[in-house]
Amino acid sequence: MRRSTKFAAALTAGILSLALTACGGSSDDNGSAKESTGSSGAKSDIKVGLAYDIGGRGDQSFNDMAAAGLDKAKSEFGVKASESEATPDEAESAKEDRLIQLADGGYNPVIAIGFAYSEAVGKVAKQFPDTNFAIVDDTANTDANVTNLVFAEEQGSFLVGAAAALKSKTGDIGFVGGVNVPLINKFEAGYDAGAKAVNPNIKIESAYLTQPPDFTGFNDPGKGKTAAEGQFDGGADVVYHAAGGSGLGVFQAAKAAKGLAIGVDSDQYLTAAPDLQPSILTSMIKHVDVAVYNFIKSFKDGDPLTGTVTFDLKSGGVDYSTSGGQVDDIKSKLDDFKKQIIDGTITVPTTVK
């Protein structure tokens, strides 16, 4: 039976208990897979295959959150894991081959991190009907052995957009997206709506680093820095990035401009270099870690999640961070917006108006 909410009640507890620090890398620089297992003494026959998007472990963002969820499952359940990652400008066939290698090697479940794997998952899942697949940030596949793990990114982005507007002294803020695709448009839409809920006349500058099929915008700090520099030079004093590893450049630009930046996916204040931390206002947290962990746990429990599972503000799947203390003085206002989104008073758009 396909279901979408079975783990909603357990999600908040999972978030509270989940260690967000990923362990050392488990793939070679060329993306070839390596197998690893937990060290807690727990043993399991489960072998998890995980295919990262560009940047893999160490991106201090989207992929690292997925790695943290896998590491928790390895530690708690003793599962074995094989990890590999996409490379910039790789052919679609490379993604298919990566998933086939995992499934053919007996890894079950197999988890694909990122919508770029959509086509590959659709093809490979049909070739391996007895293997359970999950994909993060995609709902295109409806096969019985595919689970779609998705998030209400627009809701978390609304909150950091409100934070940006409340902290802006110039009435001018910016957004840097990694790649101009519908998923990242959701981040921008929520950010815009949150900022305008505070200041309807606020100016919002927007830039995307690359256009599909070029996905290097998620792993190019140089481009991120250049785009953010342009926005700071143009008068913005707060810039939000939804650009994966390219966000490092946004933080560097914020420091140089004596402005503020907003991180994404993980609490990026905690992983940023000390000299960059004062420039990070907050982060929009997207709990990919919990999604990955819950999926593996459901498989271990013998009742795998299937269908589309959505992680939103109500379930604790998205949120904003408070590390560094720069939003302490506006926290009550942000939490009021949060309550209104959860109770349905505010409906956050998923496309830019």
Word description of this protein:
By secondary structure, the chain is of the alpha/beta class. The protein folds into 2 domains: 168 residues, Response regulator (Rossmann fold, 3-Layer(aba) Sandwich), CATH 3.40.50.2300; 155 residues, Rossmann fold, CATH 3.40.50.2300. The strands form 2 sheets. The chain has a 7-stranded mixed β-sheet with strand order 1-3-2-4-5-6-12, with helices on both faces. It has a 6-stranded mixed β-sheet with strand order 8-7-9-10-11-13, sandwiched between helices. Helix 5 runs antiparallel to helix 10 and helix 7 runs parallel beside helix 8. The longest helix has 17 residues. The chain is globular. The two termini are 38 Å apart. The N terminus is likely disordered.
- The helix tally amounts to 10
CATH level 1 class label of the largest domain? Alpha Beta
Strand runs, count: 13
Structural category:
alpha/beta
Q: Would you tell me the overall average pLDDT?
A: 90
- Proportion of residues in helical segments: 25-40%
CATH superfamily of the largest domain: Response regulator
Low-confidence stretches: 1-32
CATH architectural category of the largest domain? 3-Layer(aba) Sandwich
Number of domains: 2
How much of the residues is beta strand, in percent? 15-25%
What name is given to the CATH topology of the largest domain? Rossmann fold
Q: Between the first and last Cα atoms, what is the distance in angstroms?
A: 38 Å
- Rg is 19 Å
Global geometry: globular
- What string gives the helices and strands in order? HEEHEHEHEEHEHEHEHEEHEEH
Which sequence of strands runs across the widest sheet? Answer: 1-3-2-4-5-6-12
Reported for the largest beta sheet, the result is:
7 strands, mixed
